[in-house]
Amino acid sequence: MRYQPEHKAEVHQKIVKDASRRVRAEGLTGTAVAAVMRDTGLTHGGFYKHFGSKDELLVESLREAFRDIADKLARAAEQSHAETPWKAIVKTYLSLEYCDHAERGCPLTALAPEMARVDKKMRSQILPELVNYKNRMLPFMPGLRTADRERAFFSIFSTMIGAMEIARMLPESSMREKVLASARDFLLHSF
Amino acid sequence: MRYQPEHKAEVHQKIVKDASRRVRAEGLTGTAVAAVMRDTGLTHGGFYKHFGSKDELLVESLREAFRDIADKLARAAEQSHAETPWKAIVKTYLSLEYCDHAERGCPLTALAPEMARVDKKMRSQILPELVNYKNRMLPFMPGLRTADRERAFFSIFSTMIGAMEIARMLPESSMREKVLASARDFLLHSF
DNA sequence: CAGATGGGATGATGCTGATCATCCTATAGA
DNA sequence: TCTATAGGATGATCAGCATCATCCCATCTG
Question: CA of B60: how far to CAs of B19, B30, B48, B51, in Å?
């Protein structure tokens, strides 16, 4: 074969990475195959050499998005020397930076309602990624027993997701920051 | 004219009501003009006798959705004899009933990320509806001063929105109920 | 250097959906 | 009963998009 054997895998991964950004920025429905391929510097035609269907790409791009944000949050938690890990996660998650750059943020804040609407098959492929995300965050959550930490995960992430989504609807940076700060204060004083 | 003068206004309102349901169930992008008209028992062609554009319908349907849920929550709060109004709102909002029927629920849980992505013009038309929703809920929120109640509104609704969205991604009713119950407990013990 | 191979490009195809011009028809009012 | 009128239906147009058949060409192998 003409290319290095890993070449195709690399291109595949680049498409997935680009799609994971575009999907968070434009939505599952708002993401066109041709646009993703253009992001990658290719044309739409070659797409089906890499993926069996658009849905296949969407699932892979969501997996990548979950991994991406979990990596970032885990890093923030691990680098939090002075404070509790979960507080570092809250501060990182609820930053203006992520508010203004949905494409780098959590796929839940960007896509949860859309993910709830995809067909059964796709939902069943997405669910494990959500579970995996939760399990990666669990060790950083407050609480002594696993069940406590699991409840903390759901409470903390529910609040962060909702606050981020409300903030993103607001036109002015100062209003967005007010909502984010309010959720930060609420969470940091609740556990 | 052949019809009662209020006939057109009635049909217009029926289209808006049907659209407000469909939009919450299928998303802004997922809602086709022809589908809404079919819901109303009409065909797609007459649509532009009632609305200048699809976006115009979307804005009106969102307004209707906000009014719809605000009415329901206000009623729940007012009928809460034994308990604090805001607790009645939390219990109503975070019910399996609303989880399984997005089309009757809060447009924020169903559409917040999509609303954050619509163009500036539409966003500026949606914002007042969000503000109005907040203001209608404010008197029921815990806290003495307005600023406290406003912070409570953002904290409580953020948590409810996020929890509902996570719950809606889950395939089994028992899992959904667990997430909803977790958020309910968290909120009811936090204020 | 020649030939084979597969990644990528070009260019259909067909569907869905928004928008709109035009036609149809029921009925208020004479 | 007759006519004007406007709400609603039909059908066309046009654009966006997923999917795929086919072609091209870079380069690895011999």
Answer: 9, 16, 14, 10
